[in-house]
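Report of the visiting student (M.T.), summer placement. My assignment was to run the structure pipeline on a short list of targets and document each run. The first record concerns Immunity protein 22.
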Amino acid sequence: MELKDIFFFGLKEPEVNSLSMYFSKSEEGDPEFLIIGEKFFGDSYPINVDENSPLIQIDFQTYVAYSIRNESFTSWDDYEEFEGKIFRIYKKSRYLDFISVGTFASEDFPGTFQHYGICCLDHIIDVVSVSKPVVSEIIRC
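After the run finished, the structure tokens were exported:
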């Protein structure tokens, strides 16, 4: 829950309607001067994939829905309520509203579900699931 700046590396469905996602930690690069046009913005720090750290794997035994968005097209929404920063657990969200309108998922079937969000550099991932995520680190190949 306390990680800062992670990269999304991809996902797979190892079995029907199960989900495995892969992420990498990041590291700050050396400072660089940021100049756009004639405007100087001071020092900036590139954020790079940490090639020396293990990958983070997040597995969901089952899911109701998942979505991946380009981070560049998202905006802040005060309507949403969640805990966490990079890894979020939502109490109220537009995605949960979408699930209630766009599916017949309910407390009765498949049961109590939760909206989990992962905010990466370049990607925003939303998962609604009745199963809690299992997080592990795996050796980078």
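The chain has one domain: 7-28+45-138. The mean pLDDT is 92. I thank the supervising group for their guidance throughout the placement.
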